[in-house]
Amino acid sequence: MILNDVKIIENGSLVKRDIELKHGRIRKISKSLPKGENCAGKLLIPGFANAHTHMASRLISGLGLGLSKFTFFTKVGFKAHRLRTKEDVYNAALLAGIEFLKSGVTNVLTMDVHPKPVIKALEKLGLNYLSGYPLKDKYEEAQNIENSFKMIEQLNKEHKDKIYVGLANEVECSPKLIRQALEFAKEHDLQVHMHAAETRDEVVKIKKATGKRTINYLESLGFLDYDVSLAHCTYIDIGETLLLSGHGVPVIHCPTCNYEISRKIPNTKLMLEHKINVGLGTDEFPWNPNPDIRSEALKAISLGKISVSDAFNMLWNGHALWEEAGIFEGAPANLLLIDLWKVRPYKEIERLYLNILKNNCINSVLINGEYKLKNYKLVEKINEKELEAKVKKAKQKILGKL
Ligand SMILES: [Zn+2]
Q: What residues make up the domain containing 32?
């Protein structure tokens, strides 16, 4: 596929180029290539990564608002897990995936108690994904760990390079389980992803049990030496920030959920100063009913007092969990076509980025070189209205039984 006369950002300015896409990658960037698709008036940028979410929770969107993490899970979350069917989970994940696509997401990391129907939805939409199951051996929903590892092994066989080892969090996983998970990940060459230092409660519990702050505790388990990434890190201090930086551990920032649950977000300014790779995630639908990853970037700016470019880059930083994203020859063709007339004025890059965050301007989304969204419409034939109605109905069913 050749895209003619498309604008790209080069050294802080917009330049016109022809781009050839082949075998899922950018093959050539040139001033002149044979005639293909006319993309005049459009800007080509890499797709965004939603690097921490729970897609199945789309089913119970908004039900956590006003509730603490603990109250929500004991009163709503765990019950909802038991009340939903596989079909409910599939429909919720499919709807979430469509919403993500429309907001420019090409890569998703999701953590779900029922991963199979979520994976089915992700594959139907053709999104790049990493799927994980939250291992835990303490408190409610604690699992038979041996069976859980078997399930992950099986999933990894069926969906090579798309599965990671998920750990619920530092409190619900024993040190033994964390060590086991790290060894399992090493043996199967998988990444590990976990929630950490999300709420004050959890940090206090770890301090009480181990005498250590969360990241120091994880370091003592050898956690930071593996291929790991952490969601949140809302309550970490400068020493812990330096540890994450020194070990090159990416952090996924979920400002909406952090703020909704704790009225606090992590010190991303400090993280960026110490060169931590900070990506973005929409996290749990119960506290964040807005599936648009761009609103996380806007929140990262307003709550974290960081620059527009820093926040915008966070939309791309999550790609570190897959591979480097960018507009260069050899890059994966996970791309967005932006309608430039909808993001005026766009000469200054900061203004351009801010306008992309605020406007309905994502004309098309390509994943691995193929259109998944074209002219604001989903390419895959799915009756979106019907799907939305099904998810709403399933939510009502669950609400009725809570
Ligand atoms: Zn989460």
A: 2-46+331-378
